[in-house]
Every structure is written in structure tokens, then in C-alpha cells.
Amino acid sequence: MADLSRMADAIRFLSIDTFLKIGDGHPGTPLGAADIVTTLYNRHLKFDASDPTWPDRDRFVQSNGHGSMLIYAANHLAGFDKISIEEIKRFRELGSHCPGHPEYDPEAGIETTTGPLGQGIANAVGMAVAEEKLRARFGPDLCNHYIYALTGDGCLMEGISQEVIELAGHLKLGHLIFLFDSNHITDDGETCQAITEDQAARFRVAGWHTVECDGHDPASIDAAILLAKADPRPSFVTCHTVIGKGVPRIAGDRAAHGGKLVPQDAIDAREALGWSHEPHVVPDDLLLAWRAGGTRGRAERLAWQDRLDASEAEVKAEFQRLTASKLPDGWRAPLIHRKAQYAAERPNQPTVASSGEILDVLSDAIPELMSGAPDLEAATKHKRRLAPFTAQDRSGRYLHYGVREFAMGAMMNGMAAHRGVQPFGITFLVFSDYERHAIRMAAMMGLPVIFGFSHDSIGIGRNGPTHQPVEYLASLRAMPNLNVFRPADSVELAECWELALERRNGPSAVICTRQAVPTVRGDGTAENRAARGAYVIAPASGARQATLFATGSEVQIALDARKTLEARGIPTAVVSVPCWELFAAQDKGYRDEIIGRATVRVAIEAAASLGWERFIGEDGAFIGMSSFGASAPEDELFAHFGITADRAVSAVLERLDAKEEKRVPETV
Amino acid sequence: MADLSRMADAIRFLSIDTFLKIGDGHPGTPLGAADIVTTLYNRHLKFDASDPTWPDRDRFVQSNGHGSMLIYAANHLAGFDKISIEEIKRFRELGSHCPGHPEYDPEAGIETTTGPLGQGIANAVGMAVAEEKLRARFGPDLCNHYIYALTGDGCLMEGISQEVIELAGHLKLGHLIFLFDSNHITDDGETCQAITEDQAARFRVAGWHTVECDGHDPASIDAAILLAKADPRPSFVTCHTVIGKGVPRIAGDRAAHGGKLVPQDAIDAREALGWSHEPHVVPDDLLLAWRAGGTRGRAERLAWQDRLDASEAEVKAEFQRLTASKLPDGWRAPLIHRKAQYAAERPNQPTVASSGEILDVLSDAIPELMSGAPDLEAATKHKRRLAPFTAQDRSGRYLHYGVREFAMGAMMNGMAAHRGVQPFGITFLVFSDYERHAIRMAAMMGLPVIFGFSHDSIGIGRNGPTHQPVEYLASLRAMPNLNVFRPADSVELAECWELALERRNGPSAVICTRQAVPTVRGDGTAENRAARGAYVIAPASGARQATLFATGSEVQIALDARKTLEARGIPTAVVSVPCWELFAAQDKGYRDEIIGRATVRVAIEAAASLGWERFIGEDGAFIGMSSFGASAPEDELFAHFGITADRAVSAVLERLDAKEEKRVPETV
């Protein structure tokens, strides 16, 4: 078998030759961590490049995604079809499978999108939770693999790293192994400019097993990973490396991080490493060795397949369902039943309380549903009957994240990318900012994660402006591929939950109130009215003169205003808008009918106005927030900020008068 | 002098009586940490309640802001005028100085707004940096105080805590002292559900001095704080406490965190603590003792004032200027000079490069300007000539934050709240999500922090969608009290910098390109055209038929489109919109004139469309992004996503045709 160091050089030269070709790229990591990844892929990582999505494969996450050529080169060498040499050469070209940073594509051996530092390792921690869950449920015959994450200094400086390090240690995720590419260099230069602490000591405090190795000596790396696998704790392997190793001009220097290579670098590196091959040519012996490494897992996979086939039909079907990320048959029925109950009973309660009740129903129907609420289980009413997932008991389905919202978001992404778990996590809407970038990554990856939020407006009252979202609905609606739901009542909430769950190619945000809201929908049939994003919840009694748009707790205010307007002989429709994104996807005819441009239009939402012109045009009125909130009882706040039915009525009347005036001169 | 434990009970009963009165509040912290704060205020904290904004006072931050009654009760007892007993009774009422969570108000002894966990301690670290800066510049005679922050478990679980703990240890901020209210309880119950690690060990790894004490024994607390002050490192004082101490039903229980008190609790607490006074009555001896504590610092303050008065006139004036958060005379002239240069030289370069050049100019003009770019100094071109601020040299004005964006944001808020430093920090726009909640807090507090961003669109090219902001402009524009600037070129950038700096009552975001953009403004007089938020940068040659709105790098595209349209005989104006917020503040006449409703309107921005209807109405065209970006050379991306002058031209022509068609039937 070829020498692992030579095999690592194959990564180095694929990288160097590609960087030179396009005049771009981050050389530091692929050159510096080539030996780590080569040893991992060829001695430890359980995978079969001919079946990249084998559910029991080990997962490898390159958290320092800027060095993406490392994983592309390794995956090409190991034989992943999608990463051909042509794709390598198309590095960072439009449509290439080798984009600037690794993008989630399990068929290409890319387990998650990385680049925004800290989140890759957090995804890995989520994957390790999913692995534990599946192993607990199906036993080690069907699920028994490791999660490896390569991390640089950058990921470890981001705060999210500490959140997940603490959780992984606390939960004793023994199948989790971090490989630390420790080269003491970041973009700004020596790490000692910004950090003095001993990273391994930090992990030990958090309950991890730690070990170190020479990151350029395959035997040393191999031995360290062996120890890491043997330890029942999560392991942190410090690999001492030289950034940019192999290119003399930049090795060990900050220029290696993201600096450009020059042609002489390729010549010098060839000289230094004794590499005589043409650009992008990997000698046969090395390629053969790599390809052998890429199928090392085949026998294990076939044995696993035999075990799966030998399982009871039900077990096999269930395992396959879970790892295909499909929901179980019949998950919808109990939800629709619960919805019908709400429509019949018409409770006056916080939608977050109803969401907790719905979670209970869904937890029975969807055994893979796992929830969590970072230190807010009481306030969000979302733990309820689920037992905790702990170091001692992996059967639990509630994760005590602690006060760590960003960790929750990124871990949920890891669970969804791993498959086997349907993640749901809820916190106050105002803390969505803490996990916001994880929501973005879920949207970019198209993962079916459900982000729950409560305490969605000034309706929280006395806790004051720090806890009152104002700009959040707009900021979430601005994000591509995220469906943002703000249901009006318990019935609509059930519909939004249904839409969020059935969406398998992207995340949803389900946003609830803390304060009690009446049930405004008396109809609870199987038809999902929220599915069109906006709909007439109360029609005009005659030819529609006014349209009131509202979401969430403000739908009731719109209905109150409508009553007054109708009493004054102004036919008024109320449109509930639980989801802007779904509405935008409707045909123009439906949208025009809902919007009612010829009518006087008013929107009511206890939030910033940004974007509402889509519904109300340039002459409509917006009744909502234009500043941060305040600390006071919620009823007083709605009055103080003028979010009232009276103001909606006045806004309509003023605009009708103005229209009338306009019309008069024309007719006289 | 009265017994400190009895004085602490005064905090407890003000809290209990207030919670019972309003039926709301978080009792755990004011009851559990009353002894810590009482000992701190009456034995260590250097302040004078009769002059709350004395610049050399010690700062006290209650980072666990949900327990706000603690600081309100202490400040009332210590004699801060603003926190009268009437205000205490109006706890959480509209307009009260005692809102749900503490809100920045130095005159009331509230040094920063807290509530969103983790940020208070991060603000404190920023304050400690500001204190070191002032001490280095003016000597300990004028600046020599401590920064204390009370923290619970929640703040320490948030990732930002690790970021600032590492930085504070690394920077050896010896005047920083964290008091850890360690009661092993959070909202979800026992902390062991979510954390197993030894917090003090974690701080030791980061280079802190640690000490512990009995958090209910004033002598023990006193001794620990003495040790903390004496140590040259930042200190972490673990105070072992019982949450909710004093109310037997909830003491030591999660019910203490945010649970409601019942009347029997007040009776039982009075029994348990031997307190026989009516609600809200503090016996004279205790009040006198507290008031004596509240003015302990008076002699020190007067001595300090003497030293200040005895200083050279220039030194005194400069110190007073800095602590009044005023910019130096003449800061504007060199900036305007630089702007004139840009207008004359018309460089074709990234606006982030110009921003780096402008920072150089401003650094000379504004000695308190301190900058930082979390591990992106090369990419953002913003370190330049500034020397680093380090543990060894406090004269530096560049802070190596490491890869810690959230820490940067929250520390800048602390610096601005402390005064003496004008903070500026820059990172990629896509990482603004990481620091987003700190931006929110700056906006809520009205602090003059400048948040710089670069790499503002798909214009970054090959690095791909993870690093290409799409939704960010909209999400920042949604935030109240934040001015969001996206300048078109170097000239407009200089104007935006001027507007950001002169704004003393709120933060600004200044957003730059990575790619080169031409200088589109040839006029560089002292007039600040960006000041109106939007203006006609290229007028129509005749009666305006079309209006093209654009920001940033897309202004050039709009100008190109205008050229084509004008050549086709269509008088077209281009409106540059560097700041929506400033435009919204203009009078209606100006806004109407700019908007040009009678014209065909098209907006061009390489970002999400949310909100642009304000400019283009319901029939206008938006040319921008509706999905995440992609990895490819930037020119290809603009073509791929159709953000081109050709598309703008077509959009105008289509709409003109449609208008024409509409008009025809009317006239026939």
C-alpha cells in the first residue's frame, strides 16, 4: 500500500494546481491538514464512496470550510463520483460541485455546509446526538458510527464552540471526535494575538477526553484517533501542524490562510516534496491506494445490509423511513383531530400553549420528533411529557440545551442533515437573533428543521423592550427559503404546524404568542386554509370597500375593526396572512383577489412595517411599531403604541374620505 | 453601622413587596444575590449617588437583568434620586425608571441595558477596555476604577461568555471582576441538567484569577472582593448562594427564578427573617446606613475633582470632552478633504479599501477612535497604521478580537456606554448575524457605535453563498434606531462616515463592497448629499419618465441603464439611496419629489426585495436577489442573477409600453 504521506501530497498538489489555475482559494488548510484527513480517510473513516449515503457511514465534517479544497481533493481521490477531476478543475466556477465553501451534498461526501465558523462543529454535535438516538432505538447492528469534525482555531474562538463543547461533554457523546488542526495561525497572523489559553485544557474542563499527535506523522495521527475511538467520552485530538505545509514561501505563515499562490510556489513545492507529476495528475499507485481506501467500508456496508435485511420487516421499514427523512404514515390525522377540537372548543389561550399541546399530539404520532427549549421549557410550555435525552438515557426526546440558543439551532441542523431525528426547538422570538445564522444555514441547506418561537411581540408586556420583538418578523421574512408562520389562533397554528412538518426541503419558523388570544376560526375541517399563505378569514358583506390585513394576535383586532366598519355600512374583508412566502407562491389571480387593490387597505401587525407595502400599496395604512417597545402591562402597550381597532377604523375612514374627495372634482 | 445582612434584607423586602403588589417579576436573583450586592455597594463600589455620572466611578453591571429589582432596590436604597420609592412601586409600569429589565440610564445607576443573557458581562469587558485606555492616557489620578458584573448561570452558558472570558484573560483586564451568583438553578431547574463543568476551572484556563465565597456571608464576600481587587488578572468570584433566599416556599427551587409570589410568602419571609415592617417601609437605621454607603465615594470624588481641576487646562478639557462623548473640534475637516480627493481622483476600488483609508484619516483626527476586525484585518483593510491594544501596551487602538464577532459588538457597546472610546468594528456583512443582537442593544440604548461591514453582496464572487449576504440589508433596515448606510462609491462613503460619526444618539451600520466600484460622484464639496438619505445623483434630461433607484455597487448599473434610456429618448433619473432611515425623516415634499410616483420606477439592489415597494410602488420592478447566491466569479454572478443594466432598461421599457397601452383606450 502506498505511503500515507505521499497520498497526502496528492491532496496538496491537487490543491496547489487548482489554486494556481483559478488564482484564488485558501491554501493553508488543504496543505496543512492533508495528513490528518488522509490518515482519517484511509485508516478510520467508515464509508464506501460507491454508496455515499449509506446510513451507517461515519460522518466527516470539515468545519473550517474556507479550506474546502481539502475535502474536495480527498473525496475525489477516495472515489466519490460527483467529485471528478473535471469538477476539481471547475473549483469555484458557477454550478460546480466544488464551490467556494463546502455545500451540503451527501452524495458528494459533503455532510453539511460549512464556512461560517463554529457551526460545522456544532452540526457535528447534532449529528452525534442523532447517531446516539438511532443506536439506542435500533441497536449497534444497524447504527454504530463516529462523527469526525476537523476544526481550526477560528471555529474554536467562536462562542458557539463553547456551547456545544459543554453540551457534548455533558451528554457524553462518545462517538464524537474533533480533530484540531493546530497551527497557531489565523488570517490575522499568530493566534497569540487573540488567545492565550490551552484549548485542550478547556475541553478537559468540559469533560472531554483529549489526546495530541504530530499532525504530519500518519502513525501519530492514527494512534491518536485509535485512542479517541476507544474512549467513552467525546474526544479532542490536537494535531500539531504547520499551516500551508509544502509550499516553502507560505508554510507557517499567515499568508497561507487565504493568500494567492504564484507559479513559483508550485515549482518550489514540487522540489520540496519530490513531486514530479504534471498539474492535476495523480500517479496511479497513489490513486489506486486512495480508491482502495474509499471502498474499505464496502465489506462492512454489505454486512450491515445483510443485518438490515435480516431484521424484522417493521424494523427495517422504520429504519429506512427514518433515514430517508420521511414522516410516518398517519402523522396528520391526530393533528387534524386536534385542530377540529380547537375549532369546536374555541379556547382563549396563548398560541404557545396550544403549540405545546400540539407537540404532545405530534410526539405520539412521530416517534423521531425531538424537542428542546433553551432553558425556557416552562415559559414555552414545550417540554410537557417528553423525557430528557441524557448521558444515561438516550431514549429521551427532550434535549436540555441550557441557555444556548445558537447551539440548539446548529445542532438541529446537524440532526436533520444526519437524519433519523425530526428536530424542533423553541425559544423566545427575541433570541432568534442568537441562533439566526443557524436558521440561515438550514434555509441554505434546505433542511426540514422547525424553529419554534414564542413571546412574539409587545404582547409579552412587562418584561419590556429587550424581550419584545419588533424587527424580527421582517428580518425572518427577508431570508430566502424560510417559511415564516405567524398564526392567528390555535386552529391556524395547527395548520401551520402541518405545513411546517410536511415541508421536507426547507426550514420553517412557527411563531406564537405569550398572551392569550381568542380562537377566531370556528372551522376545523381537514382543509388547510393557511396553505395559501393568506386568505379571507371574514368576507365583506357586500362589494368590498376596505381590506384589513393582519397576522397573529392582531387578527382579532382586525376583526373588531371590521365589525365597526360593517356597522357603519362599509363592506370590509379581513385577510389573515399566516405565511408571506406561501402567499407569494400563489397564482396572480388569487393574489390579486386577496390584495384587493381597488379597496382601501390597512395592515395591522405589532411589528416593524418593512415589506407591508406589498399588501397595502403606497396609500395604505400600517398600524404597528416604529420603535422598540416598552415595559408595561400588554393591554396598555397596545393602546400606547396605537395598535387598536379604533385606529384601524379611523385609517379606513380617512382613506375613504380622501377617495371621495378625489372623486368629487372629477364628477363636478 | 447597621449590619450588612439586615441591609440586604431591605433589598429582599422591597423586592417581595413590589412583586406582590404587581403580581409579576423574577424573585430569584434579588433575594439570592442581595448579600453580594449589599456588600459590594457598601464596602467596595466607588460611587456617589449624588453625582451618578462621575466619570471615575466604579461600574456595576447586573448581567442577569431579569432580576432587575435587585439593582433598582439597591440604587433606591443607596440614594439615586431617579429611583425613588414611588418608582420602585411603579416597577414595570409604563414610563417607570424601573422597567422589566434594566435599561441604560447612568443617572439612575444603570450602566447598560441587560436582559439578553451574556451581553451584560460582555459590555463589562468593553468597559474594562475603555477604563484601561483612559487610565493609560490620563494616568490613575484621573481614571482608576473597577468594573463589576454580576452574572448568573445563564450568562455563562451563552457562547458570548467564552468569547469575552478568553479576551479578558488574554488582555489581562485586571480591573474587571465578575461576581458569579452560583445557585445551581435556572428556569428549567437544576443546572446539572445542562452543564457539568466547573465554571471557575474554565476561567482559570482562560487566565483569570478565581476565588470563592459564601454569597450570604458579608465578611466572606468582602474578603473575596478584596482578593479580586488585589490580583492583577481579571477575577472571577464564585459566590455560593441559594436562589430566592428568604422566601421559604421557593428558596433553592426553580420556582424562584420567575415564579409568582403569593401573599403568604411575604408573611413567611417576614417570619423567617424577622422583618416586622410594613410593605415598602425600610427602617431608618437601615436606610441611613445605605445612604451613608451611597455617598461613601464623595470624598474620593471631591479629591478626584481637585486633581482634575489642577490638571493642565488642555488635559482637563480633553478628559471632559471624552467623558462627555463629544468628538474633537476639527474632526470633520480632514474627512471632507479626503472626500474631495476621492471626487478629484475618482478611484476605481473597493469601498472597503476606501473605508480603510478614511479610518486612517479619522484615526489622526479622533484620538479616541478604536477599531477592530475579528480576524479579518487584511480582508477588510482596516488595521492599517493603528497599533494593537495588548496586555503589555494599552496605548494601542486596534483590538485583536480573534474570530469573535458577537464579543466585538457587545464590547463596543460597553466601551460606548463607559465613554472615553469611540468604537468602530468591522467584519463581513454575512457575520453581522453573529453580532446582530449587540447591534440591537446599541440601537435600543442609543449608543454612538459604528458597525462596519464589508463583502456586502454576491459581488464577493467565488467564496459562495455562505459568504454572500442577501437578506442582510432588509434585516438591518427593519431594526429601529439603526441608520443603515450602503454608499455607492468612495465619495458617498466619506459622507456616510461623517453622518455615522456625527450621530451621537444611536448606532450606524456602514456597509462596503469587496469588489472595486467606480467613483460615480465627481462632486466633493463640503455639502453632504447622503444626509437626506436619497438624492438624485443623475437627473433626467427632460420631464422625468423613469426613475431608477439603487444603492452601493448597483448605482453604477443604474447609471449605465440611464445612459441607454436617455439615448432612446426617455428622460431618466437615477436616485442613489445610501440611507433609508434618513430619507424617511425628510419632509413629504422632498420625498415625493425623489420618489416620482408618476414615473416608471425600478429599483436595483443585489439583495432581497423586502421593503423596496416603498420606492417603486406596486407596479415597479425590482432587480435583485430572490434566492441565496452562488460560487462563481462576481461578474458571472451579476449576469446569472440578472442584476444588469439591460434588465433595468427592459423593465422600464415594458412598463412604459404598458402605460402607453393603458392610455390609448382612454383617449380613443
TrEMBL record, chains A, B:
The record marks H26, H257 as: Important for catalytic activity. Keywords: Calcium, Magnesium, Metal-binding, Thiamine pyrophosphate, Transferase. Binds 1 thiamine pyrophosphate per subunit. During the reaction, the substrate forms a covalent intermediate with the cofactor. Its EC number is 2.2.1.1. Thiamine diphosphate binds at H66, G115, P116, L117, G154, N183, H257, F431. Substrate binds at H26, H257, H455, H467, R514. Belongs to the transketolase family. Mg(2+) binds at D153, N183, I185. The active site is at E405. One of its GO terms (molecular function) is transketolase activity. Pfam families: Transket_pyr, Transketolase_C_1, Transketolase_N. It is an enzyme of class 2 (transferase). InterPro entries: THDP-binding, Transketo_C/PFOR_II, Transketolase-like_C_2, Transketolase-like_Pyr-bd, Transketolase_bac-like, Transketolase_fam, Transketolase_N. It catalyses: D-sedoheptulose 7-phosphate + D-glyceraldehyde 3-phosphate = aldehydo-D-ribose 5-phosphate + D-xylulose 5-phosphate. SUPFAM superfamilies: Thiamin diphosphate-binding fold (THDP-binding), TK C-terminal domain-like. GO terms for cellular component: cytosol. PANTHER family: TRANSKETOLASE, TRANSKETOLASE 1-RELATED. This is Transketolase. Residues 349-519 form the Transketolase-like pyrimidine-binding domain. Transmembrane segments: none annotated.
